[in-house]
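Handout, section 4.2: multi-component inputs.
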Amino acid sequence: MIDWELIAKIAGGGFGSTLLVLAILCIVIWLIGLVVRRRAAKDKK
Amino acid sequence: MFGLYQMAFSGLTWGNLLMLLIGGGLIYLGVARKMEPILLVPIGLGIMMVNIPFAGLMVYAPAEPGAIPLPASGGLKEIAEGKIGLLNLLYQYGLESEIIPLLIFLGIGALSDFSPAIARPLSFMFGATAQLGVFVVFLIAYLTGWFTINEAICVGIIGGSDGPPTVYLTVAKAPQLLGPITLVAYSYMALVPILQPPVMRLLTSKKERQIYMKPQMREVSRLEKVIFPIAVFVVSALLVPASAPLIGMLMFGNLLSVTGVTDRLAASAGGLFVDVLTFLLGLTVGALMPAVVFLNPKTLIIIGLAVVAFAFGTAGGIWGAKIANLFLKEKINPLIGAAGVSAIPMAARVAQVQGQKANPRNFLLMHAMGPNMAGAIATSVVAGIFLSMV
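Output:
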Protein backbone atom coordinates (compact mmCIF):
# COMPACT_ATOMS: atom_id res chain seq x y z
CA MET A 1 0.00 0.00 0.00
CA ILE A 2 1.56 3.26 -1.14
CA ASP A 3 1.27 6.16 1.28
CA TRP A 4 0.84 8.94 -1.29
CA GLU A 5 0.60 11.67 1.29
CA LEU A 6 3.90 10.69 2.88
CA ILE A 7 5.80 10.43 -0.39
CA ALA A 8 4.41 13.75 -1.59
CA LYS A 9 5.54 15.27 1.69
CA ILE A 10 9.03 13.78 1.40
CA ALA A 11 9.56 14.40 -2.33
CA GLY A 12 7.79 17.75 -2.71
CA GLY A 13 8.37 19.08 0.78
CA GLY A 14 11.92 17.76 0.91
CA PHE A 15 12.94 19.30 -2.40
CA GLY A 16 11.17 22.54 -1.53
CA SER A 17 12.92 22.71 1.85
CA THR A 18 16.29 22.06 0.18
CA LEU A 19 15.71 24.95 -2.24
CA LEU A 20 14.63 27.21 0.63
CA VAL A 21 17.60 26.38 2.89
CA LEU A 22 20.08 26.88 0.05
CA ALA A 23 18.36 30.11 -0.99
CA ILE A 24 18.75 31.42 2.56
CA LEU A 25 22.41 30.39 2.56
CA CYS A 26 22.85 32.14 -0.80
CA ILE A 27 21.42 35.39 0.60
CA VAL A 28 23.43 35.17 3.84
CA ILE A 29 26.71 34.61 1.99
CA TRP A 30 25.90 37.42 -0.47
CA LEU A 31 25.16 39.79 2.43
CA ILE A 32 28.36 38.85 4.25
CA GLY A 33 30.36 39.48 1.06
CA LEU A 34 28.67 42.82 0.59
CA VAL A 35 29.35 43.99 4.17
CA VAL A 36 32.96 42.79 4.18
CA ARG A 37 33.73 44.45 0.83
CA ARG A 38 32.08 47.73 1.86
CA ARG A 39 34.06 47.73 5.10
CA ALA A 40 37.28 47.02 3.21
CA ALA A 41 36.54 49.84 0.75
CA LYS A 42 35.83 52.22 3.65
CA ASP A 43 39.09 51.24 5.38
CA LYS A 44 40.97 51.89 2.14
CA LYS A 45 39.51 55.38 1.88
CA MET B 1 42.36 -31.22 4.58
CA PHE B 2 43.15 -34.91 5.09
CA GLY B 3 40.35 -34.87 7.68
CA LEU B 4 42.44 -32.58 9.89
CA TYR B 5 40.64 -29.30 9.27
CA GLN B 6 38.06 -27.73 6.99
CA MET B 7 39.21 -26.01 3.81
CA ALA B 8 37.20 -23.16 2.32
CA PHE B 9 36.43 -25.05 -0.92
CA SER B 10 33.65 -27.10 0.66
CA GLY B 11 31.70 -23.94 1.53
CA LEU B 12 32.37 -22.07 -1.73
CA THR B 13 29.24 -21.23 -3.71
CA TRP B 14 28.83 -19.90 -7.27
CA GLY B 15 27.81 -16.64 -5.65
CA ASN B 16 31.10 -16.48 -3.74
CA LEU B 17 33.04 -17.16 -6.94
CA LEU B 18 31.17 -14.39 -8.77
CA MET B 19 31.84 -12.00 -5.90
CA LEU B 20 35.55 -12.91 -5.92
CA LEU B 21 35.57 -11.99 -9.62
CA ILE B 22 33.75 -8.71 -8.90
CA GLY B 23 36.26 -7.92 -6.12
CA GLY B 24 39.14 -8.66 -8.48
CA GLY B 25 37.49 -6.52 -11.16
CA LEU B 26 37.24 -3.56 -8.80
CA ILE B 27 40.89 -3.91 -7.83
CA TYR B 28 41.74 -4.00 -11.55
CA LEU B 29 39.71 -0.85 -12.22
CA GLY B 30 41.38 0.92 -9.29
CA VAL B 31 44.95 -0.13 -10.12
CA ALA B 32 45.01 -0.35 -13.93
CA ARG B 33 42.36 2.22 -14.82
CA LYS B 34 43.01 4.52 -11.82
CA MET B 35 39.24 4.76 -11.13
CA GLU B 36 38.86 6.03 -7.52
CA PRO B 37 41.77 3.71 -6.50
CA ILE B 38 41.77 4.75 -2.84
CA LEU B 39 38.23 3.37 -2.55
CA LEU B 40 37.84 0.68 -5.19
CA VAL B 41 41.00 -1.21 -4.19
CA PRO B 42 39.99 -1.64 -0.51
CA ILE B 43 36.36 -2.31 -1.47
CA GLY B 44 37.52 -5.01 -3.90
CA LEU B 45 39.77 -6.55 -1.26
CA GLY B 46 36.99 -6.34 1.35
CA ILE B 47 34.64 -8.19 -1.02
CA MET B 48 37.24 -10.93 -1.47
CA MET B 49 37.82 -11.18 2.27
CA VAL B 50 34.15 -11.70 3.05
CA ASN B 51 33.50 -14.17 0.26
CA ILE B 52 36.03 -16.76 1.38
CA PRO B 53 33.96 -19.23 3.43
CA PHE B 54 35.01 -19.88 7.05
CA ALA B 55 37.56 -17.03 7.01
CA GLY B 56 35.51 -15.30 9.70
CA LEU B 57 36.72 -11.78 9.01
CA MET B 58 33.12 -10.52 8.96
CA VAL B 59 30.45 -12.69 10.56
CA TYR B 60 26.76 -12.09 9.83
CA ALA B 61 23.97 -12.41 12.36
CA PRO B 62 21.20 -14.85 11.42
CA ALA B 63 18.35 -13.04 9.65
CA GLU B 64 14.67 -13.83 9.24
CA PRO B 65 13.77 -15.60 5.96
CA GLY B 66 13.78 -13.09 3.09
CA ALA B 67 15.58 -10.39 5.11
CA ILE B 68 19.08 -9.19 4.26
CA PRO B 69 21.47 -10.22 7.06
CA LEU B 70 23.48 -7.62 8.98
CA PRO B 71 26.94 -8.01 10.56
CA ALA B 72 26.96 -9.53 14.04
CA SER B 73 28.05 -7.28 16.87
CA GLY B 74 30.28 -7.88 19.85
CA GLY B 75 33.62 -6.98 21.38
CA LEU B 76 37.09 -8.43 21.84
CA LYS B 77 35.66 -11.36 23.81
CA GLU B 78 33.46 -12.33 20.85
CA ILE B 79 36.47 -12.04 18.53
CA ALA B 80 38.45 -14.39 20.78
CA GLU B 81 35.54 -16.82 20.77
CA GLY B 82 35.31 -16.66 16.96
CA LYS B 83 31.77 -15.24 17.06
CA ILE B 84 32.75 -12.13 15.11
CA GLY B 85 35.74 -11.01 13.04
CA LEU B 86 38.02 -7.99 12.89
CA LEU B 87 35.90 -6.34 10.22
CA ASN B 88 32.82 -6.65 12.44
CA LEU B 89 34.60 -4.37 14.91
CA LEU B 90 35.52 -1.89 12.17
CA TYR B 91 31.89 -1.86 11.02
CA GLN B 92 30.52 -1.50 14.53
CA TYR B 93 32.83 1.24 15.79
CA GLY B 94 33.57 2.97 12.48
CA LEU B 95 30.41 2.85 10.41
CA GLU B 96 27.52 1.92 12.68
CA SER B 97 28.63 4.71 15.02
CA GLU B 98 28.85 7.07 11.96
CA ILE B 99 32.39 8.13 13.00
CA ILE B 100 34.19 7.29 9.75
CA PRO B 101 31.91 9.18 7.28
CA LEU B 102 31.89 12.23 9.56
CA LEU B 103 35.67 12.29 9.99
CA ILE B 104 36.13 11.83 6.23
CA PHE B 105 33.96 14.91 5.75
CA LEU B 106 36.26 16.80 8.13
CA GLY B 107 39.18 15.90 5.88
CA ILE B 108 37.25 16.86 2.74
CA GLY B 109 36.43 20.22 4.35
CA ALA B 110 40.13 20.81 5.02
CA LEU B 111 40.91 20.04 1.37
CA SER B 112 38.12 22.22 -0.03
CA ASP B 113 38.30 25.76 -1.29
CA PHE B 114 34.87 27.38 -1.18
CA SER B 115 36.07 30.67 -2.73
CA PRO B 116 34.16 30.17 -6.02
CA ALA B 117 30.89 29.66 -4.09
CA ILE B 118 31.63 32.73 -1.93
CA ALA B 119 32.44 34.82 -5.01
CA ARG B 120 29.14 33.81 -6.67
CA PRO B 121 26.60 32.89 -3.96
CA LEU B 122 24.06 32.06 -6.69
CA SER B 123 26.04 28.80 -6.97
CA PHE B 124 24.10 27.61 -3.92
CA MET B 125 20.91 27.58 -5.99
CA PHE B 126 22.48 25.34 -8.64
CA GLY B 127 23.70 23.03 -5.87
CA ALA B 128 20.09 22.90 -4.66
CA THR B 129 18.39 22.34 -8.04
CA ALA B 130 20.91 19.59 -8.82
CA GLN B 131 19.42 17.62 -5.92
CA LEU B 132 16.42 16.98 -8.19
CA GLY B 133 17.87 13.56 -9.02
CA VAL B 134 17.76 12.57 -5.35
CA PHE B 135 14.04 13.23 -5.04
CA VAL B 136 13.06 11.81 -8.45
CA VAL B 137 14.88 8.56 -7.73
CA PHE B 138 13.44 8.40 -4.22
CA LEU B 139 9.98 8.51 -5.83
CA ILE B 140 10.80 5.91 -8.48
CA ALA B 141 12.50 3.58 -5.99
CA TYR B 142 9.55 3.70 -3.63
CA LEU B 143 6.96 3.31 -6.38
CA THR B 144 8.67 0.18 -7.77
CA GLY B 145 7.53 -1.52 -4.59
CA TRP B 146 10.97 -3.09 -4.09
CA PHE B 147 12.10 -0.59 -1.47
CA THR B 148 10.70 0.66 1.81
CA ILE B 149 10.57 4.43 2.42
CA ASN B 150 13.82 4.20 4.41
CA GLU B 151 15.55 2.26 1.65
CA ALA B 152 14.19 4.56 -1.08
CA ILE B 153 15.66 7.71 0.47
CA CYS B 154 19.05 5.99 0.69
CA VAL B 155 18.86 4.92 -2.97
CA GLY B 156 17.85 8.48 -3.88
CA ILE B 157 20.75 10.15 -2.07
CA ILE B 158 23.14 8.43 -4.50
CA GLY B 159 22.08 11.26 -6.85
CA GLY B 160 23.81 13.74 -4.56
CA SER B 161 27.06 11.99 -5.57
CA ASP B 162 28.70 12.80 -2.31
CA GLY B 163 30.14 9.83 -0.40
CA PRO B 164 29.97 10.76 3.30
CA PRO B 165 26.31 11.96 3.34
CA THR B 166 25.32 8.81 1.41
CA VAL B 167 27.09 6.54 3.91
CA TYR B 168 25.82 8.59 6.88
CA LEU B 169 22.17 8.38 5.81
CA THR B 170 22.31 4.73 4.75
CA VAL B 171 23.89 3.58 8.02
CA ALA B 172 21.10 5.36 9.88
CA LYS B 173 18.16 4.32 7.72
CA ALA B 174 18.97 1.19 5.68
CA PRO B 175 22.23 -0.40 6.87
CA GLN B 176 21.33 -3.64 5.04
CA LEU B 177 21.88 -1.77 1.73
CA LEU B 178 25.09 0.01 2.76
CA GLY B 179 27.34 -2.26 0.66
CA PRO B 180 25.62 -1.94 -2.73
CA ILE B 181 24.66 1.73 -2.24
CA THR B 182 28.18 2.82 -1.30
CA LEU B 183 29.74 0.80 -4.09
CA VAL B 184 27.34 2.20 -6.68
CA ALA B 185 27.69 5.78 -5.36
CA TYR B 186 31.50 5.80 -5.52
CA SER B 187 31.71 3.89 -8.81
CA TYR B 188 29.28 6.25 -10.53
CA MET B 189 31.17 9.28 -9.24
CA ALA B 190 34.12 8.01 -11.27
CA LEU B 191 31.78 7.62 -14.26
CA VAL B 192 30.59 11.25 -14.19
CA PRO B 193 32.62 12.11 -17.34
CA ILE B 194 30.65 9.43 -19.20
CA LEU B 195 27.22 9.96 -17.61
CA GLN B 196 26.91 13.75 -17.71
CA PRO B 197 27.90 14.91 -21.25
CA PRO B 198 24.94 13.29 -23.11
CA VAL B 199 22.46 14.93 -20.69
CA MET B 200 24.31 18.26 -20.99
CA ARG B 201 24.14 18.18 -24.79
CA LEU B 202 20.51 17.07 -24.77
CA LEU B 203 19.34 19.91 -22.54
CA THR B 204 21.38 22.81 -23.91
CA SER B 205 21.65 24.36 -27.35
CA LYS B 206 25.06 24.96 -28.89
CA LYS B 207 24.46 28.69 -28.44
CA GLU B 208 23.91 28.20 -24.72
CA ARG B 209 27.02 26.07 -24.36
CA GLN B 210 29.01 28.77 -26.14
CA ILE B 211 28.10 31.48 -23.62
CA TYR B 212 31.40 33.10 -22.64
CA MET B 213 32.22 33.75 -19.00
CA LYS B 214 35.22 35.82 -17.93
CA PRO B 215 37.79 33.39 -16.51
CA GLN B 216 38.54 35.63 -13.54
CA MET B 217 36.16 35.65 -10.56
CA ARG B 218 36.25 38.35 -7.89
CA GLU B 219 38.90 37.96 -5.23
CA VAL B 220 37.62 36.61 -1.90
CA SER B 221 39.17 38.12 1.24
CA ARG B 222 40.45 36.02 4.13
CA LEU B 223 37.80 37.48 6.41
CA GLU B 224 35.04 36.21 4.09
CA LYS B 225 36.69 32.79 3.96
CA VAL B 226 36.78 32.62 7.78
CA ILE B 227 33.19 33.81 8.22
CA PHE B 228 31.88 31.44 5.51
CA PRO B 229 32.18 28.07 7.34
CA ILE B 230 30.85 29.56 10.57
CA ALA B 231 27.87 31.19 8.82
CA VAL B 232 27.05 28.10 6.75
CA PHE B 233 27.18 25.88 9.82
CA VAL B 234 25.05 28.16 12.03
CA VAL B 235 22.41 28.86 9.37
CA SER B 236 22.04 25.28 8.14
CA ALA B 237 22.12 23.80 11.66
CA LEU B 238 19.40 26.22 12.73
CA LEU B 239 17.25 25.41 9.69
CA VAL B 240 17.96 21.65 9.52
CA PRO B 241 19.40 20.50 12.88
CA ALA B 242 19.83 16.90 11.66
CA SER B 243 22.35 18.11 9.07
CA ALA B 244 24.57 19.62 11.79
CA PRO B 245 26.94 16.62 12.20
CA LEU B 246 27.71 16.49 8.45
CA ILE B 247 27.88 20.22 7.77
CA GLY B 248 29.59 20.82 11.12
CA MET B 249 32.43 18.46 10.22
CA LEU B 250 32.75 19.77 6.65
CA MET B 251 32.83 23.37 7.83
CA PHE B 252 35.14 22.62 10.76
CA GLY B 253 37.66 21.09 8.36
CA ASN B 254 37.31 24.09 6.08
CA LEU B 255 37.72 26.54 8.97
CA LEU B 256 41.02 24.85 9.88
CA SER B 257 42.32 25.49 6.37
CA VAL B 258 41.37 29.19 6.17
CA THR B 259 42.20 30.62 9.59
CA GLY B 260 45.87 30.93 8.68
CA VAL B 261 46.87 29.78 12.17
CA THR B 262 45.83 26.11 11.99
CA ASP B 263 47.63 25.11 8.82
CA ARG B 264 49.28 22.09 10.42
CA LEU B 265 45.91 20.75 11.60
CA ALA B 266 44.39 21.34 8.17
CA ALA B 267 47.29 19.56 6.49
CA SER B 268 46.89 16.61 8.86
CA ALA B 269 43.10 16.42 8.45
CA GLY B 270 43.34 16.55 4.67
CA GLY B 271 46.37 14.26 4.40
CA LEU B 272 47.14 10.86 5.84
CA PHE B 273 44.21 11.13 8.25
CA VAL B 274 41.53 11.20 5.53
CA ASP B 275 43.42 8.62 3.43
CA VAL B 276 43.46 6.09 6.27
CA LEU B 277 39.79 6.67 7.05
CA THR B 278 38.85 6.30 3.38
CA PHE B 279 40.81 3.06 3.19
CA LEU B 280 39.05 1.71 6.31
CA LEU B 281 35.68 2.79 4.90
CA GLY B 282 36.40 0.97 1.65
CA LEU B 283 37.52 -2.22 3.36
CA THR B 284 34.49 -2.30 5.65
CA VAL B 285 32.05 -1.49 2.85
CA GLY B 286 33.61 -4.28 0.76
CA ALA B 287 33.07 -6.65 3.66
CA LEU B 288 29.37 -5.77 3.58
CA MET B 289 29.05 -7.56 0.27
CA PRO B 290 28.98 -11.30 0.79
CA ALA B 291 27.23 -13.08 -2.09
CA VAL B 292 24.07 -13.58 -0.05
CA VAL B 293 23.71 -9.82 0.46
CA PHE B 294 24.98 -8.42 -2.85
CA LEU B 295 23.54 -10.89 -5.37
CA ASN B 296 20.04 -9.64 -4.88
CA PRO B 297 17.59 -8.08 -7.37
CA LYS B 298 17.69 -4.87 -5.31
CA THR B 299 21.36 -4.38 -6.20
CA LEU B 300 20.58 -4.47 -9.93
CA ILE B 301 17.73 -1.99 -9.44
CA ILE B 302 20.04 0.31 -7.45
CA ILE B 303 22.61 0.19 -10.29
CA GLY B 304 19.90 1.21 -12.79
CA LEU B 305 18.35 3.90 -10.60
CA ALA B 306 21.73 5.52 -9.97
CA VAL B 307 21.97 6.36 -13.70
CA VAL B 308 18.55 8.03 -13.48
CA ALA B 309 19.67 9.92 -10.35
CA PHE B 310 22.78 11.31 -12.07
CA ALA B 311 20.79 12.22 -15.20
CA PHE B 312 18.11 14.13 -13.26
CA GLY B 313 20.75 15.72 -11.00
CA THR B 314 22.58 17.03 -14.06
CA ALA B 315 19.29 18.17 -15.59
CA GLY B 316 18.25 19.92 -12.35
CA GLY B 317 21.52 21.88 -12.26
CA ILE B 318 21.21 22.92 -15.91
CA TRP B 319 17.57 23.92 -15.52
CA GLY B 320 18.49 25.93 -12.42
CA ALA B 321 21.11 27.87 -14.42
CA LYS B 322 18.67 28.40 -17.30
CA ILE B 323 16.05 29.81 -14.93
CA ALA B 324 18.70 32.12 -13.40
CA ASN B 325 19.56 33.33 -16.92
CA LEU B 326 16.00 34.61 -17.33
CA PHE B 327 16.76 37.20 -14.64
CA LEU B 328 20.48 37.85 -15.10
CA LYS B 329 21.87 40.68 -17.20
CA GLU B 330 25.21 38.96 -17.66
CA LYS B 331 24.24 35.44 -18.76
CA ILE B 332 25.95 32.40 -17.31
CA ASN B 333 26.82 29.24 -19.18
CA PRO B 334 24.19 26.67 -18.11
CA LEU B 335 26.81 23.92 -18.16
CA ILE B 336 28.17 25.17 -14.81
CA GLY B 337 24.82 24.28 -13.21
CA ALA B 338 25.46 20.61 -13.98
CA ALA B 339 28.46 20.72 -11.62
CA GLY B 340 25.95 21.10 -8.77
CA VAL B 341 25.69 17.31 -8.59
CA SER B 342 28.90 17.51 -6.52
CA ALA B 343 31.29 14.61 -7.36
CA ILE B 344 34.08 17.08 -6.56
CA PRO B 345 35.94 18.03 -8.75
CA MET B 346 34.95 15.66 -11.55
CA ALA B 347 31.64 17.35 -12.45
CA ALA B 348 33.32 20.78 -12.62
CA ARG B 349 35.94 19.37 -14.99
CA VAL B 350 33.20 17.91 -17.19
CA ALA B 351 31.53 21.36 -17.41
CA GLN B 352 34.91 22.86 -18.32
CA VAL B 353 35.58 20.29 -21.06
CA GLN B 354 32.08 20.57 -22.57
CA GLY B 355 32.17 24.37 -22.40
CA GLN B 356 35.54 24.53 -24.11
CA LYS B 357 34.40 22.13 -26.82
CA ALA B 358 31.57 24.52 -27.69
CA ASN B 359 33.70 27.66 -27.37
CA PRO B 360 37.50 27.27 -27.20
CA ARG B 361 37.75 30.67 -25.47
CA ASN B 362 35.71 29.43 -22.52
CA PHE B 363 37.39 28.57 -19.26
CA LEU B 364 34.56 27.49 -16.95
CA LEU B 365 36.42 25.47 -14.32
CA MET B 366 36.40 28.06 -11.52
CA HIS B 367 32.81 29.06 -12.31
CA ALA B 368 31.76 25.40 -12.13
CA MET B 369 33.63 24.85 -8.86
CA GLY B 370 31.09 27.11 -7.09
CA PRO B 371 28.04 24.91 -7.76
CA ASN B 372 30.28 21.88 -7.28
CA MET B 373 31.18 22.91 -3.71
CA ALA B 374 27.63 24.09 -3.03
CA GLY B 375 26.42 20.65 -4.12
CA ALA B 376 28.33 19.06 -1.21
CA ILE B 377 26.55 21.37 1.23
CA ALA B 378 23.20 20.76 -0.49
CA THR B 379 23.54 16.95 -0.26
CA SER B 380 24.28 17.24 3.47
CA VAL B 381 21.19 19.40 3.87
CA VAL B 382 19.13 16.80 1.97
CA ALA B 383 20.51 14.01 4.21
CA GLY B 384 19.50 16.07 7.25
CA ILE B 385 16.02 16.71 5.82
CA PHE B 386 15.55 12.99 5.13
CA LEU B 387 16.72 12.10 8.64
CA SER B 388 14.24 14.58 10.10
CA MET B 389 11.26 13.60 7.94
CA VAL B 390 11.48 9.81 7.73
